[in-house]
Amino acid sequence: MKVTRIHRAQRVNKGKVAALREQAQRLGPVRSEVWQRFGSLRGVNRTDRQIRDQWLKDQRVFPVSANAW
Fold first, then answer.
1. Helix or strand run (H / E) with residue 53
2. Which are the contacts of 63, defined by CB distance < 8 A and separation ≥ 6?
3. Rounded to whole angstroms, what are the CA distances from 55 to 33, 49, 52?
4. 44 Rama class: left (phi>0) / alpha (psi -120 to 50) / beta
5. pTM score, two decimals?
6. Is 50 helix (H, G, I), strand (E, B) or coil?
7. Strands (E), 1-69
8. CA distance linking residue 35 with residue 46, whole number of Å
9. pLDDT tens digits, the chain, 69 residues: what are they?
């Protein structure tokens, strides 16, 4: 499944656009896994930070920085 979010900005240089595209590519699989594991009722009363912090505690490796969540 592919989910798209569209954001419009004015006067964004090509470097920033490339960096944002790269980050989106890296975040996609992480976001997908979070949704599959914690979406709907399984994620009730759990924030993205709680999930991230637990994964970091479990020493999971991510292709993005922790604050990119």
1. helix 48-57
2. 26, 29, 30
3. 12, 10, 5
4. beta
5. 0.60
6. helix
7. none
8. 12
9. 566 677 777 888 999 889 888 888 988 888 888 888 888 777 778 887 888 888 889 998 878 776 666
